[in-house]
C-alpha cells in the first residue's frame, strides 16, 4: 500500500531529505494525496489567492510575450511562506510552444554555455538542434546513441553560473536573451517587482527519471530581487522547505506553463525536484494544446508562430521531458562583483564538467551518481 507523506516526515533530523526520498521512490509508488495541485485547488487554510498588480502590465504588453491579461491570472501564496507566489499557467493558448522552441532550439546555441561544452568542442556543440533533428524525428526502433538534445542537461545564460565555485563573475557574461528578459520583466512587475533586470538564467532539462537535489539559490549578490521560475512539458513535484533541512517541506505540482516567484523571506528557502511525472488525468497538456496561437499576434509581438516541423520535434521531446527556466537578477542597483575572484574561480568554459553528465542537478561537485538519471540530494 502507498505510504502517506505525513506518516514519513515529522520535523526533525533532515526532514527534507526524508520527504525527497519519499517522492522519489518508484516502487511502491508514493501516495500523492498531500501534494498541492494549485490548478485544481480551491483556496484553503494554506492556499491563499495572491494579489497581483494588474495595472503594472497592460494587456498589450502581456500579449506580446504570450500572456493572458494579468487580471485573468490565477495566482496563489502559501501560508507560512511569505514572498512565495505560484501562478497557474497564465500563457495564451498555443504560446507556450514558442517558449519551448526557444528552450530547445535557440537558448542552447552559442554563446550560451551548456553541459555538453564541458567535454565537447565548441564546433561539436554549436548546433545541438540541427544535429538531433533527424534522429529524433525518424526513430528507427533500434537502440541508438542518444542525440545531443537528449543529452542536454543544463544551459546557462547571461552571467554564466559556475557550478564548481557556485559563483557568477563579470568575465563570464554573454547577452541575456531579450525575449526571455521581456517575459520575466512582465511577470515580476505583475508580482510587485518593477524594473527587474534579468542577468542570469539556468535552464534545467529533465528526463523522466531526473531529479534536482536539495539546494538554496544564494549565489546572486542581491537577495532583495526575486527568483523567477518557468516550467514547460512534463509535470514535476516541487518541494519547498524552510531555512534549514529539519523543516518539513510542502509538496506541490508544477505543470506546464506554471510559474513561481520566490522573494522576501521565501527567496532563500531550501527546495528540490524529487520527481518528474505526467500531468494528472483531465489536465490539458502542452501536446494537446499544440502550437496554434488562438489569438492573433500584434505587429510587435515577441512570441511568433512555431512551424509544424519545429513543433513536431518539440512535442516529441516534451512528451516525456520537462524544461525549467530560472531567471535571476544577480546584482543590485550600483552593485558590482568583488574585485578579486576567489582562487578557485574560473571563467567561461574553463569549468570542469563536474557532476553534470547525467541529470539536472544543482549539487555540483558533490553529486553522487546513481544508476538512473537522477541524483542523491546533498546539501549545498
Ligand atoms: C525546477 O526545476 O523547478 C527547480 C529549478 C531550481 O531550483 O533551480
UniProtKB/TrEMBL annotation:
Subcellular location: Nucleus
Basic and acidic residues bias spans: 354-364
Domain called Fe2OG dioxygenase: residue spans: 195-331
Essential cofactor(s): Fe(2+)
PROSITE patterns the record matches: FE2OG_OXY
Compositional bias annotation for Polar residues: 337-352
Any GO molecular function: class I DNA-(apurinic or apyrimidinic site) endonuclease activity
Predominant cellular place of this UniProt entry's protein: nucleus
Cellular component per GO, a single term: cytoplasm
Reaction equation(s) it catalyzes: an N(3)-methylcytidine in mRNA + 2-oxoglutarate + O2 = a cytidine in mRNA + formaldehyde + succinate + CO2; a methylated nucleobase within DNA + 2-oxoglutarate + O2 = a nucleobase within DNA + formaldehyde + succinate + CO2; an N(6)-methyl-2'-deoxyadenosine in DNA + 2-oxoglutarate + O2 = a 2'-deoxyadenosine in DNA + formaldehyde + succinate + CO2; an N(1)-methyladenosine in tRNA + 2-oxoglutarate + O2 = an adenosine in tRNA + formaldehyde + succinate + CO2
GO BP annotations listed: DNA repair; oxidative RNA demethylation; positive regulation of gene expression, epigenetic; regulation of translational initiation by tRNA modification; RNA repair
Cofactor note: Binds 1 Fe(2+) ion per subunit.
EC code(s) of this entry: 1.14.11.33, 1.14.11.51, 4.2.99.18
Region (Disordered): 332-380
Binding positions (Fe cation): 215, 217, 271
Keywords: Dioxygenase, DNA damage, DNA repair, Iron, Lyase, Metal-binding, Multifunctional enzyme, Nucleus, Oxidoreductase, RNA repair, Transcription, Transcription regulation, Translation regulation
Subunit structure: Monomer. Interacts with DNAJB6.
Protein name: Nucleic acid dioxygenase ALKBH1
Amino acid at each position: 500500500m502507498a505510504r502517506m507523506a505525513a506518516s514519513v516526515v515529522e520535523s526533525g533530523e533532515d526532514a527534507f531529505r526524508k520527504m525527497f526520498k519519499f517522492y522519489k521512490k518508484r516502487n511502491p509508488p508514493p501516495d500523492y494525496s498531500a501534494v498541492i495541485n494549485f490548478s485544481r485547488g480551491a483556496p484553503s487554510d494554506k492556499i491563499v489567492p495572491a494579489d497581483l498588480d494588474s495595472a503594472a502590465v497592460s494587456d498589450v504588453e502581456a500579449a506580446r510575450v504570450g500572456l493572458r491579461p494579468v487580471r485573468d491570472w490565477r495566482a496563489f501564496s502559501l501560508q507560512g511562506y511569505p514572498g512565495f507566489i505560484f501562478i497557474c499557467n497564465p500563457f495564451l493558448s498555443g504560446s507556450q510552444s514558442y517558449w519551448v522552441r526557444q528552450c530547445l532550439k535557440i537558448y542552447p546555441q552559442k554563446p550560451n554555455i551548456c553541459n555538453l561544452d564541458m567535454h565537447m568542442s565548441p564546433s561539436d556543440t554549436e548546433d545541438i538542434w540541427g544535429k538531433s533533428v533527424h534522429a529524433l524525428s525518424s526513430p528507427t526502433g533500434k537502440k541508438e546513441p542518444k542525440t545531443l538534445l537528449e543529452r542536454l542537461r543544463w544551459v546557462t545564460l547571461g552571467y554564466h553560473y559556475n557550478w564548481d565555485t557556485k559563483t557568477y563573475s563579470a568575465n563570464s557574461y554573454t547577452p541575456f536573451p531579450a525575449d526571455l528578459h521581456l517575459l520575466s520583466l512582465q511577470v515580476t512587475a505583475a508580482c510587485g517587482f518593477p524594473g527587474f533586470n534579468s542577468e542570469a538564467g539556468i535552464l534545467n532539462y529533465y528526463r523522466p527519471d531526473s531529479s534536482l537535489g536539495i539546494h538554496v539559490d544564494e549565489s546572486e549578490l542581491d537577495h532583495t530581487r526575486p527568483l523567477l521560475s518557468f516550467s514547460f512539458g512534463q509535470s514535476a513535484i516541487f518541494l519547498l522547505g524552510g531555512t534549514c533541512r529539519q523543516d518539513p517541506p510542502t509538496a506541490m505540482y508544477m505543470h506546464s506553463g506554471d510559474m513561481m516567484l520566490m522573494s522576501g523571506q521565501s527567496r532563500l528557502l531550501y527546495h528540490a525536484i524529487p520527481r518528474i511525472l505526467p500531468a494528472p488525468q483531465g489536465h490539458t497538456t502542452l501536446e494537446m494544446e499544440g502550437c496554434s496561437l488562438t489569438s492573433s499576434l500584434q505587429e510587435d509581438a515577441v512570441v511568433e508562430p512555431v512551424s509544424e516541423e519545429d513543433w513536431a520535434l518539440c512535442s516529441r521531446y516534451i512528451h516525456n521531458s520537462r524544461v525549467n527556466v530560472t531567471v535571476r537578477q544577480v546584482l543590485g542597483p550600483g552593485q558590482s562583483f568583488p574585485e578579486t575572484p576567489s582562487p578557485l574561480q574560473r571563467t567561461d568554459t574553463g569549468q570542469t564538467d563536474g557532476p553534470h553528465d547525467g541529470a539536472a542537478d544543482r549539487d555540483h561537485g558533490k553529486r553522487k551518481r546513481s544508476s538512473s538519471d537522477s541524483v542523491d540530494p546533498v546539501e549545498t
